[in-house]
Design a protein that fits this description.
With 700 residues, this protein is an alpha+beta fold. Among the domains are: 7-108, Pleckstrin-homology domain (PH domain)/Phosphotyrosine-binding domain (PTB) (PH-domain like, Roll); 329-417 and 447-616 and 669-687, Porin (Beta Barrel), CATH 2.40.160.120. 30% of the residues lie in helices and 26% in strands. The protein has 17 helices and 30 strands. Strands 15, 16, 17, 18, 19, 20, 21, 22, 23, 24, 25, 26 and 27 form a 13-stranded antiparallel β-sheet that branches. It starts with 6 loop residues before the first strand and ends with a helix. The relative contact order is 0.09.
Amino acid sequence: SDHMENIYGYLMKYTNLVTGWQYRFFVLNNDAGLLEYFVNEQSRHLKPRGTLQLAGAVISPSDEDSHTFTVNAASGEQYKLRATDAKERQHWVSRLQICTQHHTEAIGKNNPPLKSRSFSLASQGSCNSPGVQRRPSQNAISFFNVGHHRSSSGKRVPILQPDHLVDVREMMSQAEGQQRDLIRSIECLPVSGHLTSLDQDLLMLKATSMATMNCLNDCFHILQLQHASQQKGSLPAGTTISWLEPKISLSNHFKNGAAQSFSAEINNKPASVREEQSISEPGQLTREAEEINPDEELEDISDDKEDDLGAVEEQRSIILHLLSQLKLGMDLTRVVLPTFILEKRSLLEMYADFMSHPDLFLAITNGSSAEERMIRFVEYYLTSFHEGRKGAIAKKPYNPIIGETFHCSWRMPKSEVVTDASSNLSAPSSSEQGTLATDVEGQAELDYYTVKFVAEQVSHHPPVSGFYAECVERKMCVNAHVWTKSKFLGMSIGVTMVGEGLLSLLEHGEEYTFSLPCAYARSILTVPWVELGGKVNINCAKTGYSASINFHTKPFYGGKLHRVTGEVKQNATNTVVCRVQGEWNSVLEFTYSSGDTKCVDLTKLAVTRKRVRPLEKQGPFESRRLWQHVTESLRDGDIDKATEHKRALEERQRNEERLRAETETPWCTKYFLKEGDGWVYHKPLWKTISTVQTQQMDNN
């Protein structure tokens, strides 16, 4: 009875982005099952500023800190609250959960379950409105019809009957079909007239119906995990989940459209698969670094945009089954994802596509002052992510095989690189020209700059990639290593890019360190899309300039997509010299301390195509040749064949890793060397140029 007493006190409530957190006086009314709040304790006798019905609500402690929690009402309204400390949060959460459970069970007792599990909104006629079709008895408890029995201690324990999950799945399948019909009906409306497909109420209906189905799938996922743990126990640590060989039996719904397992017998496989499994016999391939001649590279003509849902739409039941095997927060490193969600390039090539604006990259060193060079680097940095995404649909690049490499280059006409009128940096001095002639044969006289790029997968567990780009003529290079940590977040997947990059401007003796934002694949059951989130910092220790950039994730209600804000400041005086705001895939606005502004429309920004060697000239471990059969099969829409080629590559990697472990043979990288916690290119420009200059001084 003590636990059912009314409690009250001050909590912080998150209002919106403008007003943020505010103290409010909250009262838990256990008898009525209400959570009410007032401006302060003195106004408690007045009408509450807000009220939440707790029956059917979900009380969730937040992972972001030990003070925050949320109250999600069945109506869809949400309170985000913060206590003064962890103890007070636990006190409120436990009392709210007890009150919620009491009133939710009371509803279940007072409402009989549905008589027929074949209930269908569609069967009642399309002319009926959702409000007319809804009945008070159709609450969550009576809908799922969960049975109970009393344990020896008298506590009620829920029992999941064997056929209940199938019944729920049937109902949810009907609801999913009706939701799809609703979306199609709205989208088929004209774009002008009395009722259009762009009507605000209809757009809100589309969004809320989609969010409702996502929430139901989350709940069903929890029920499946609970049932699976009761039947089989949880998955042991380190288990590899192979999608094509599911660990639990599939219902007919899940089998619909599922990819078939392939025969493991090598003789039944095509020659290309046998080649993929055998090209790396021990000792067959050399790990010596190879110098790539940019003159052998040709302009890339491939254009694999990922704007078509295609197989993703058809294979949604497979994604549902995959999600049923995952837990919130699970590391996805060892999870083998289905082939149809892959985009047609390796992760190493995706890093190269971040360099698709080499003119902005080269313009950094042409800045006439340290302040201008930092601002130019921020401009280049923010424009690099848009082209890194291939289309609006979120798909996953291939996980690079350990030892995989990718090479490319860009040719940038010197006339198209922004210079500064007060700077003589655009024209190398006579002594520098001699150095350049020594460094790069004959390229000092060319009318274009060459930016060379190389990436290598240096580790498999954890998955770490190293990449390096340089322009010898401009004496600038960038070196970075990235560890991609992916986690399952329920209805989305989060990827943390752990690592650091270093931009070196050798003409100025400046080094800029930078990090990368997190990436999120949202709405993975509907139309998947990508957003970036998190705070990144750019620092130059020599000049004392730094930049702080925030990639904002979209709030649940309202707000803009892909929003980014940032500022550049001089650390010594704490003076902000430039502010930036906008969207990282649309328009960016830079405001300078002088009051001037500049807008950059990324959708109109010229993209320079990279240059890549033809497949026949690439080594067997270069990305495009390594994955060529997977890519060709995906282009042809043959998911089964693509899966077979992908499995052959992954099996080869596992066999090699097992052999190295048995023989205690360490893996030797080709282009990158381990230095501390990071990876550095074996011949960085800052070493080669200093070596050349030392040799010239010795000769003189």
